[in-house]
Write a structure and sequence with these properties.
Blueprint: E1 2-8, E2 16-22, E3 25-27, H1 39-51, E4 59-73, E5 76-88, E6 105-112
Parallel strand pairs: 1-5
Antiparallel strand pairs: 1-2, 2-3, 2-6, 4-5
Length: 114
């Protein structure tokens, strides 16, 4: 199961969605559940691993949506299930230098609301 996170900052100057670019495509941060983890624990871990965000800086919000897709992985058909959650963080708390698993992230940006 892969998690997707729609991170949103509600500061005085910024409101938007946080996505990152890896290997030529944009995606929300995410990953799989590890043994014994619930979704909230995985969200905190993944945001730290991929974007260097300290878990104490994350305000975890509601479950927003689900998505699933069937595709080939390693020559066999798998179903990927994604759950998207709202997480409030300050742009200043995104510190890629602290990421332990940056996944070749080339860039990240906040997408502003229209």
């Amino acid at each position: 199961m892969r998690h997707g996170f729609s991170s949103r900052s509600q500061g005085h100057r910024y409101a938007g969605w946080l996505d990152w670019c890896r290997e030529g495509f944009w995606a929300t941060p995410g990953g799989s559940l590890e043994g014994g983890e619930d979704h909230a624990t995985a969200i905190l871990r993944e945001l730290g691993e991929e974007l260097g965000i300290d878990e104490t800086a994350i305000e975890l919000g509601v479950h927003l949506a689900n998505r699933s897709a069937d595709h080939l992985a390693g020559g066999r058909e798998v179903r990927q299930v994604e759950r998207y959650f709202l997480a409030r963080v300050s742009p200043a708390d995104v510190i890629p230098a602290y990421a332990t698993q940056p996944d070749n992230i080339r860039e990240y940006r906040w997408w502003t609301e229209t």
